[in-house]
Amino acid sequence: MSDDFQQRGGSPWGTPPGGGGGNGSGRGPTPPDVDKIIREFQEKIKRFLPGSGSGGKQAILVLIILGFVWLASGLYRVLPDEQGVVLRFGKFVKTTQPGLNYHIPFPVESVLTPKVTKVNRIDIGFRSERDSGFSSSGGVADVPQESLMLTGDENIVNIDFSVFWVIKDAGNFLFKIQDPEGTVKAAAETAMREVIARSDIQPILTEGRSIIETDTQEIIQKILDEYTSGIQITQVQTQKADPPDQVIDAFRDVQAARADMERSKNEAEAYANDVIPRARGEAAKILQAAEAYKKEVVAKAEGEASRFLAIYNEYKKAKSVTQERMYLETMEKVLADIDKVIIEKNAGSGVVPYLPLPELQKKKATN
């Protein structure tokens, strides 16, 4: 052995400084007992294995409790305004409806519960200053690159609108599209440009907005369904539809002139509706009077003819009597209002008997 080994006391473990061992025997420290360490480790393992006494039973009970807790952790609740999305190792498996549901506990399956009844809104053509972070005054800022659109009659219209949507299928919403809001916005702008491109500017500015909103909503929904986005469009609401700012005054003048034209047209139609019925009423009245006069004249003529025929028939039966009767009736009518003096032709010569009938009538009238 080397001199250095001899100087350390001939022990491979050496001698501590001061010339003495740690155990007072004059030797170096004792090396660790590997066999003892292994035996102690085996004893600890046996305590947790079945059949190892009370320690093993306790371990089994603990494992059973932990198993029940792990299985119970698979219960989850979906609120009425939510929809459950079950993922198995991160892959979409199914969707669940509101209520108490179950899934294989973590780490096998996990659940997402997005809000499906919340109405989301996207503004196109404008931004509120509050949303943009400029101020809280509630004003709006126009976005010309979104709002300016070309109409079917080659005019430019500045239209702002909002799209309202909800989640229809949470699974498709979370995993079929990467940017739901961006997808809805792009589809809405595309649909509105398509509808505006086939419409004239006049209906867009006046009474045609409801039709434009309905058509746009249908096209947006069709696009999103093709993407299987899981999104339902609930409403498209037009906020503003005006000509471009540079020519808006001229358009307003045109609108005022058209309004005057419509008002004059309505007044003319009202006058026509008043005069024409009255004229028709007067014409009907004249026609009815003429018809009545015609019937009256015909009826009188028929009556006279019937009377004449009746008299003629009686005349043929007794000519002398009929002639006498006709003579008396005629004279009665002729002499009814004339003062009369009756003279008897056989009264005798030289004497004219006179009966003052008019005087008698006057006295009678006086009395």
Biggest sheet overview:
4 strands, antiparallel
Structural class: alpha+beta
Mean pLDDT level: 77
Helix content: 40-55%
CATH hierarchy, class of the domain at 120-243:
Alpha Beta
The shape is elongated
Assign the CATH superfamily of the domain at 120-243: Band 7 domain
Question: What is the CA–CA distance across the termini?
Answer: 199 Å
Number of strands: 11
Runs in which pLDDT lies below 50 for 5 or more consecutive residues are 1-28
Strand content: 15-25%
Secondary structure elements and pairings:
Blueprint: H1 3-7, H2 34-47, H3 54-72, E1 75-78, E2 84-88, E3 91-96, E4 99-102, E5 109-112, E6 120-124, E7 126-128, H4 129-132, E8 140-142, H5 144-147, E9 148-150, E10 156-167, H6 170-175, H7 180-197, H8 201-205, H9 209-226, E11 231-242, H10 248-317, H11 319-334, H12 357-366
Antiparallel strand pairs: 1-4, 2-3, 2-5, 6-10, 7-8, 9-10, 10-11
Notes on the structure:
The protein is α+β, with helices and mostly antiparallel strands. Among the domains are: 33-72, no CATH class; 73-112, no CATH class; 120-243, Tetrahydropterin Synthase, Chain A (2-Layer Sandwich); 319-366, no CATH class. Helices cover 51% and strands 17% of the residues. It contains twelve helices and eleven strands. The chain has helices at 3-7, 34-47, 54-72, 129-132, 144-147, 170-175, 180-197, 201-205, 209-226, 248-317, 319-334, 357-366; strands spanning 75-78, 84-88, 91-96, 99-102, 109-112, 120-124, 126-128, 140-142, 148-150, 156-167, 231-242. Strands 6, 9, 10 and 11 form a four-stranded antiparallel beta sheet that branches. A three-stranded antiparallel beta sheet has the order 3-2-5. A two-stranded antiparallel ribbon has the order 1-4. Strand 9 (148-150) and strand 10 (156-167) form a beta hairpin. Helix 7 packs across helix 9 (209-226). The longest helix has 70 residues, at 248-317. The radius of gyration is 61 Å and the shape is elongated. The protein starts with a helix and ends with a helix.
